[in-house]
Specification:
50% of the residues lie in helices and 11% in strands. By secondary structure, the chain is mainly alpha-helical. It has one domain.
Length: 123
C-alpha cells in the first residue's frame, strides 16, 4: 500500500462498507465518496473536498476535538495524515487500485457488490 495509515484489509473495509451501504443499488464508484463515508465514521466534522485549483484537500471543521487518550488517537492520526496532500493522494491511489482489482476478480459487477463481496469479510 502506498498510504501509511491503512493496510490492504483497511482499504478493503472502506470499499466494502461503501458498496454494502448502497446494496442492492447500482453505484458509480468514486473513491472520494467511499473515503468520505469512512472519515465521517471517525471525525464527523471532516471530509476531503476539491478546492478551487482542482486538488483534493482535507477539511476538518472541528480541529480541536477533545480525545480521551492523550498518547494515541485515531482521529488525530487520521487528521494529521490527511492534512498532507501526499497522504490524500496515497489513500486515493490505494482505494482506486484495490477497487479495480475487486472488479477484475468478481467482487463487484455492474456497480453492485456480488455474493463474493457479501461473504468475504477479510481479504
Amino acid at each position: 500500500m502506498k498510504n501509511q495509515l491503512y493496510s490492504r484489509q483497511g482499504i478493503y473495509d472502506i470499499i466494502r462498507s461503501h458498496y454494502l451501504r448502497n446494496f442492492p443499488y447500482t453505484i458509480q464508484f468514486e473513491a472520494l465518496n467511499a473515503i468520505n463515508e469512512h472519515i465521517s465514521l471517525i471525525i464527523d466534522s471532516a471530509s476531503i473536498q476539491k478546492n478551487e485549483s482542482g486538488e483534493y484537500v482535507f477539511i476538518n471543521n472541528n480541529p480541536n476535538m477533545e480525545v480521551d487518550d492523550p498518547f494515541e488517537s485515531t482521529e488525530r492520526n487520521l487528521a494529521a495524515y490527511l492534512s498532507k496532500s501526499s497522504g490524500v493522494e496515497a489513500l486515493f491511489q490505494d482505494v482506486n487500485a484495490l477497487q479495480k482489482w475487486l472488479l477484475q476478480y468478481g467482487f463487484i459487477h455492474g456497480g453492485i457488490a456480488t455474493e463474493k463481496m457479501l461473504v468475504t469479510n477479510k481479504l
